[in-house]
Amino acid sequence: MPESRPLILITNDDGIDAPGLRNLIAFVRDIGDLVVVAPEKGMSGMSHAITVREPLRLRKLREEKGLIEYSCNGTPVDAVKLGEKLVLKKNPNLLLSGINHGSNASVNILYSGTMGAVLEGCMIGLPSIGFSLLDYAYDADFAPSETWVRRIVRMVLEKGLPQGVCLNVNIPAVPLEEIKGMKVVRQADGAWEETFEARQDPYHQDYFWLSGKFNERKNGSDTDLVVLREKFISIVPVQYDLTAHAALPKLKEFNLLLTKKADQNC
User: Fold this and answer.
1) Residue 106 to residue 98: CA distance in whole angstroms
2) Domain ranges of the chain
3) Cβ distance 70 to 138 under 8 Å?
4) pLDDT digits (tens, 9 = 90+) for 142-193
5) Hey, what's the torsion of the CAs at 184, 185, 186, 190, to 10 degrees?
């Protein structure tokens, strides 16, 4: 008997009609059977948000051999939950999110709906990958990503990922021949310096528009931001366990001191 094709759940945060999602579907269409559950509109910046104060709705848009598509009115994490619990009613072999329009390197992962979906998949035990292209334009050229997306997807399907680990993959927006390869690196340190632009609506009511600039800190040479500038694809292994393990010994010392002081004050 022929081997069954892997089952792949796909979502994003730019919405069901986003070119990045359409390209991702096309890139992996022949690799497995695809079930797409994506937000009906853009949900960028939603991180790991879930919908708890309004009903969730799921709408089937398309079904053909090897491909089923749904939209939902929720967040990317809602889409993963709906896909796994209601549509598939079982775990797929792989979860993919993206291709995001814009970078999710460095601390952008903390705000990213794309990576929120990936971390949700990881939490429920799915090998999960988020893809992002460093181009925010709606009509960005995703074609140079195809070869590398397919390689990474096939690699994870074949080799798997460590338990509790998912991948944050960022792709430089350059022609295919300029991509030098891919590197597994760590997340760069940095922060957004944010400003709020004050405006007034026609009714003279104040409102504010968030903007800002990103400040990269000195990180060394083995970070996602560095290798992306060098025209490599960055692959950062990510975990949902946010424990600062390296700090545990020091803070356990604090715990002993605080306990001792509390006993002395009794």
Assistant:
1) 17
2) 7-188+219-265
3) no
4) 999 999 999 999 999 999 999 999 999 999 999 999 999 999 999 998 888 8
5) -130
Q: Scanning the structure block, which residue is given the tokens 């993959």?
A: 169
Contact residues for 30 (Cβ-Cβ < 8 A; gap 6+): none
Per-residue 3-state assignment (H helix, E strand, C coil) for 28-51: HCCCCEEEEEEECCCCCCCCCCCC
- The CATH number that domain 7-188+219-265 falls under is 3.40.1210.10
CB 14, CB 136: distance < 8 Å: no
Q: What does residue 164 show for φ and ψ, rounded to 5 degrees?
A: 80, 10
Distance CA 9, CA 19 (A): 17
In 74-146, DSSP assigns E strands to 94-101, 128-133
